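User: Design a sequence. Structure:
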């Protein structure tokens, strides 16, 4: 979990602590199979999305963009990334991550 958080911070993401659950942003929490990365939109963004004419009152498109950015960062670093069954986050599976060019031999 700390490796995932560290990668995200080094890439410029602000990763919030678990205790900050009421604050919008990106979180990395421990999961039984690895690390769970989730994102919460701000009330302001949710209101803006809701007020746009002809748009659904959700933040799904931005959530997809954030998840694509996170996956695009972590997959090349050797992490196995999968979407959670509810689509609300990304799961980094716990496994050995080898440096580039090393296959663990």
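Assistant: Done.
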């Amino acid at each position: 979990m700390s490796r995932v958080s560290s990668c995200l911070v080094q890439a410029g993401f602000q990763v919030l602590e678990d205790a900050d659950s009421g604050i919008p942003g990106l979180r990395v929490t421990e999961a039984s199979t690895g690390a769970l990365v989730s994102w919460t939109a701000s009330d302001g963004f949710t209101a803006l999305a809701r007020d746009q004419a002809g748009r659904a009152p959700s933040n799904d498109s931005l959530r997809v963009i954030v998840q694509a950015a996170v996956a695009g960062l972590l997959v090349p670093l050797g992490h196995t990334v999968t979407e959670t069954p509810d689509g609300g986050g990304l799961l980094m599976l716990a496994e050995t991550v080898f440096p580039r060019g090393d296959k663990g031999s």
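The beta strands are 15-16, 25-31, 34-40, 80-83, 89-93. The mean pLDDT is 79.
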